[in-house]
Design a protein that fits this description.
- The protein has one domain: Gcn5-related N-acetyltransferase (GNAT) (Aminopeptidase, 3-Layer(aba) Sandwich), CATH 3.40.630.30.
- A seven-stranded mixed sheet has the order 1-2-3-4-5-7-6, sandwiched between helices.
- By secondary structure, the protein is α+β, with helices and mostly antiparallel strands.
- Helices cover about 30% and strands about 30% of the residues.
- Keywords: Acyltransferase, Transferase.
- GO terms for molecular function: acyltransferase activity, transferring groups other than amino-acyl groups.
Length: about 160
């Protein structure tokens, strides 16, 4: 059974390690390095995690027994009170396919709903079709593709309406 706990900035190192390990394969597939693209999720540092938490993001850690195996972050949109964001959903590769990602995502969605959100947005690398299908299976729908001059790939935004 996955145990979920809110994590503060004092867990920044554990959170960054989970994220880096979970997203390292994406960086390899994309052929990018930290030197070229330091802001890509696979290169998350404890300092970046700590700054995100200090800016108001909530972070959850998922544990099996006492081992952290996944994490997710969420935050309300400061400019749209009924909208929330989910970021950095990460499950260690050896623990994927067991429903832990869906549990973490559901937890974040429920917390955002409690904060007044009725829709949630996530973003992924657009070329990762299998990941897009995963989110579609959880009720998300693609809404927009964006190009950023700081990234060598397109970013796909997906959205989900949440309610009781």
């Amino acid at each position: 059974m996955l145990r979920l706990e809110q994590a503060g900035a004092d867990f920044s190192e554990i959170i960054s390690e989970l994220i880096m390990e979970s997203f390292s394969q994406q960086a390899k597939i994309l052929g990018i390095t930290e030197k070229e693209y330091p802001n890509f999720v696979a290169f998350e540092t404890p300092g970046k995690v700590s700054r995100r938490i200090k800016r108001g993001e909530r972070v959850v850690l998922g544990y099996l027994l006492e081992k952290p195996v996944g994490t997710v972050s969420y935050k309300m949109d400061d400019n749209a009170p009924a909208k929330g964001y989910i970021k950095r959903l990460a499950v260690l590769p050896e623990f994927r396919g067991k429903g832990y990602g869906a549990l973490l995502l559901d937890y974040a969605e429920r917390r955002l709903l409690e904060c007044g959100a009725n829709r949630v947005e996530i973003s992924i690398v657009a070329q990762f079709r299998r990941l897009m299908e995963y989110y579609r299976s959880l009720g998300y729908r693609p809404v927009e593709v964006k190009v950023f001059n700081t990234l060598p790939f397109e970013v796909l935004y997906l959205e989900k309406t949440i309610n009781l």
